[in-house]
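Progress report, Aim 2. The chain analyzed during this reporting quarter is listed below.
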Amino acid sequence: MIKQWLGCAPNNFLKGRKSLRPEAIVIHAYSNLDEAETLFADPASAQSCHYTVDGDGHAYQFVDELDTAFHAGLVINPSWRFLHSAVNPNLYTLGVAGLAGTGIQWPEGLYDTLAELLRELCVQWNIPVDADHIVLHAEIRASKDCTGKGFDRNKLLARLGEALPVQAVARARQDTSFVHLISNANLRSRAPNTRELIVRTLLKGSDIEVVDSTDRGERIQGNACWYETRDGFLWSGNTDKPHPVQVAVSTTKASPPVAAHSPPGAVESGIPMLDALLKDRGAPAINSGTRDHTAIGAIQDLLSGHGVVGMPNCLSPLYGRFGTKISSAIQSFQGQHDLPPTGVVDSATLLQLIAIPASEPRASLGYLTLVLHKGFTGLLKVVSIVSQMEGAGKFGALNLNIDGAGLSYGIIQWAQRPGRLLELLRAYSAADQALYVEIFGEGDAVLADALLALLSRSNGGVDPKKGITIDARFDLINSPWTERFKQATLQLKFQIAQVDAAVQAFGKSYQVILGYSSGIESERGVAFMLDVANQFGDGGLKRIYNKVHRSGMGEMEILEAIADETVEHMPDKFKHGVRARRDDFLTTALLSDDNKSFGVDNS
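Predicted structure tokens for the chain:
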């Protein structure tokens, strides 16, 4: 629903909620809008509510939901059973007032407006619709009967019960399909805020087709409404309809707006405990008593993506173990995102771990299954394990010519000198040409095309011995190019393009391996060979295999011989790391010795 922003005096609310979040809604009453607005604008009153509503369908917002309104802070003879001991209830409640006046019978229209607003708030903050969570002010402060006998909570709950099933409210579609721009507008890529990448600038006077709208975007000049097009988001204040006719109900935490991932739970991860949490907010939380190591490992993966240092990767013996470090990391994440800092992963915490864009996304089991909705089997599983060796699984891993190959980038380190970086940037361009041009050409298609032309040259456009660029315009190992690659890393479309390109590359290598090898049949064996091929090239692996292979050798014997040979090929400073890499593939429990475990048909 549309909410008109009015605001209140700075002294009448508190920025933030001290790491808490709204758990209930407290109902108040004021005689009329003038009374409420005058009171909330007076810094001496120390009063405010998040919203007031009237009987004509209007909602007026005075305090952001992420901030603390001063509406129910005085506790006197309380009867509300979910009151937190020694914690101001303002910190974990929303204040909503009906404009009816104390003791006056609330008109039907006021119940309708209040139900519409509460319907949205309950979905937004995962608040149950019952008398324990739709609270009367008098249940916190017995001496303040501000709703009076004129308000019937049972009537409100019945109305909410009819309109709000257990499942989340479906996103509404607006009535208008075109808006007219009254000024130039930047189209933002993934979410309704000015921190997002500009897809392009839309010109004043244009008619723009829109498919949806939200009033939970970044607030600009008091207006938090944004339109969604097929390509991105634009602020509604730049259009002839600054307040959409009908605004979509969002089912994710709204401020700050987050990237538009697919709805969690729309595709099952294949990890039963996590899938249960995505479907049922009452499902058992993941904690120190959890024995599902795969579920715990996926949480560690997600935390790593959010920049938590020291989380173990899938090859570590600590992967899938719930200790004090992961509990502390979860608690810190919860505190940063207005969730109860419990240190365990409940449904709300899991949803936020998935929905909030990762600052350092990694091709790990947790991220691939829960964010990108990819199945963790076959070639994709191999890609994920290899990526841990190449750059800690990071989509944005950069090797700035340390090995003389120019720039190497991404989950399997597409290197410039062998010509592999070209295949990845072509995949980026194919995934979203406009986004590719915006990032790598800064909006200049000629520059973006010239980059591909350079990478198409022999040795990827670098000196074959030193890895230094032959064209000063494209010094990819230095600024601004490194920043451009980092920016591209955060785009979901390009993350998916990386995964798909890696799977395709490994599929080609697998076919080459099948053409000359014998005795390599298990999931472990194929994964081992693909890792060597990724490091030494298809031709390099074939030469090594032919050098060490002898008739009658078993699979493990062949793999160990290849491992020894690859170590010998490396300079002394890299020998230890390569030996550890080979040994990890030979021993990790993630890989099976069963030849039925491997498949190549997933993406």
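The longest strand covers residues 24-30. The chain has 17 helices and 18 strands. These observations will guide the mutagenesis work planned for the next reporting period.
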